Amino acid sequence: MVGDMTRIVAGRAGGRRIAVPRAGTRPTSERVREALFSRLAHDGVLDGARVLDLCAGSGALGLEAASRGAAEVVLVDSARQATRVCESNARSLALDGVRTVTARAESFLAGAAAAPCDLVLLDPPYDLGEADLAGLLRLLARRQDPWLADTGVVVVERSARSPEPEWPDGLVRVATRRYGETALWFAEPGDGAVGPPD
């Protein structure tokens, strides 16, 4: 069930190792996580945040957020093997406010939002089709029973060779970062033209 290990980069659980499911996941590298969370911390996104980690795999992204001050983190993955690893990792790190859900991201987002999120981390398999990704983003951007707080941030991780995600009405891309084979796309609630990449 458990394959390699990775580690939490910083915060209360900084330096602690966590397990990675043996198959079916692609953990975000420590370098990319450090860059991502340094930006989010600089922007004041993490402290006391409600965080949703979709396609969570080992839970490394959501657990990094919890380590760095997020108040509530929900780890969602369709594979029971992955959510078992997420549960084990959360227990071993003793981070409060973390829960796991075994569900497809689309099914989870189609349900009721308990409360709007300050941060949504979306790291789907690289082979997820662009239309399917666009469908997930449309669900995130819904205005009735919203998933995103008015000042919320969405981060999409894709292959650097993938095209830019198709942003739905209600989400505006605000930044792009590339790290080797990985691209991070940042978006926020809003209307109007997508901003230039920076």
Automatic annotation (TrEMBL):
The keyword Transferase applies. The keyword Transmembrane helix does not apply. PROSITE patterns: N6_MTASE. SUPFAM superfamilies: S-adenosyl-L-methionine-dependent methyltransferases (SSF53335). It is an enzyme of class 2 (transferase). It comes from Actinomyces howellii. This is Ribosomal RNA small subunit methyltransferase D. Pfam families: Cons_hypoth95 (PF03602). It comes from the Bacteria. Keywords: Methyltransferase, Transferase. Gene3D superfamilies: Vaccinia Virus protein VP39. The gene is rsmD. Its EC number is 2.1.1.171. One of its GO terms (molecular function) is 16S rRNA (guanine(966)-N(2))-methyltransferase activity.
